[in-house]
Amino acid sequence: MASKEELSNIRKDIDWASLGFSYMPVRSHIRASFKDGKWSEGELCTDHTISMSIAATCLHYGQAAFEGLKAFRCKDGAVRVFRPDENARRLNLSAERILGPTIPVDFFCELVRKVVLDNIDYVPPYGSGGSLYIRPLYIGVGPQIGVAPSDEYELLIMVMPVGPYYKGGMKPVHAMVIEDYDRAAPLGTGTIKLGGNYAASLKPAKAAKEKGFPIPLFMDPKTHEYVDEFGTSNFFGITKEGAYATPASSSILGSITNKSLQQIAQDLGMKVEKRQIHRNELGNFAEIGACGTAVVITPVSEIVTKDQTYKYEENFPTLKKLYDAMQGIQYGELPDTHNWMFEV
Ligand SMILES: Cc1ncc(COP(=O)(O)O)c(C=O)c1O
Question: Are residues 225 and 139 in the same domain?
Fold first, then answer.
């Protein structure tokens, strides 16, 4: 655990109020290598570049997965990471699907602890609304020219401070249903976090943005009848009866934020429905949210499909309640009753 002295170390050369969500080189990242059937201990590295074989499988055959999670400087001065064990488990789903070695959950959490501690002065101060974004990257680095999994892998965990997404309170956005592209295949890799999934979403996301819709909404790739998820976040809605409803689908990422919000909704006495959501049901919601680590919840006030425009509450009272409860736990202002926070 970090000492009081370590925890009081906060950089003075960063303007915390103007931080956005972008790459910033910090002191170090941590790197563990898998070779000869085992993981190395994990070394802190100050060089922000990597070198590998030009025949590495991550470059040719997409053996590349990643994760995203955050550390928060809490009200009591401690620094805590939100549910790193869940990210470890999800990374292992990705690893298994691309025939790479899995990572023991406790080992992953210890690597996270070490890299956060080494960069503790980059964790934004409590009250700034910022956090330390943690980005694990898992890549096959051994050479292969025939299509086959690598024998060697690197797990890198990089970190960077990010600012509050909402500087003047939560702002709703408009979303557009993507009718002519899919981000995942029906039984493909949409449930895991492979780099290639995001390559597939770049073009439709750009087209939606150019039409004035900052977030694309994808339908299920098999029938285009059911709601899947937004480009980089899960879909959930508050029904007119007050239930929390979110899609069950074999092509969406299991969002840790969504899982946590479902628990919070239950704790608040709401009914939680995880089920298929038909596109014709989009008119039955009072509020719609996009949820994920980066923003927690983005309220969606309008969804445009090829033949309809649906409008939702502009002041989204339930989303606000869920958002406040989540941030309250993350910043240590509310009790962590489910033991989600991992202290470094
Ligand atoms: C496609 C997709 N869905 C959902 C999410 C949200 O997942 P999480 O809440 O674990 O960040 C993300 C972000 O990681 C994403 O990229």
Answer: no
- Which of 164, 192, 226 marks a domain boundary? 164
Please tell me the pTM assigned to this model. Answer: 0.97
Token couple for 329 = 């736990």
CATH number of the domain where residue 106 is located: 3.30.470.10
Find the CATH number of the domain harbouring 304.
3.20.10.10
Reported as a single tens digit per residue, the pLDDT across 170-213 is 899 999 999 999 999 999 999 999 999 999 999 999 999 999 99
Q: What is the pLDDT of residue 161?
A: 98
Say how many C-beta atoms besides its own lie within 10 A of residue 308's C-beta.
Answer: 12
Ligand 1: centre distance to CA 258 (Å): 9
Q: Label residues 213-249 b or e (16+ Cβ within 10 Å = b).
A: bbbbbbbbbeebebbbbbbbbbbbbbbeeeebbbbeb
Which of 105, 129, 164 is the C-terminal boundary of a domain? 164
Phi, psi of 248, deg, nearest 5: -100, 125
Q: Which atom of ligand 1 is nearest to the CA of 234?
A: 4
* Closest atom, ligand 1, to C-alpha of 229: 3
Whether the CB-CB separation of 343 and 79 falls below 8 Å is answered with yes
What is the tens place of the pLDDT at every residue in 66-86? 999 999 999 999 999 999 999
Look at residue 214 and tell me if it is in a domain: yes
35, 70, 167, 193: the catalytic one is 193
How remote is the CA of residue 255 from the centroid of ligand 1, in Å? 5
- What total of structural domains would you count in the chain? 2
**Domain interval for residue 15:** 4-164
Q: Quick check: 184 and 200 in contact, CB under 8 A?
A: yes
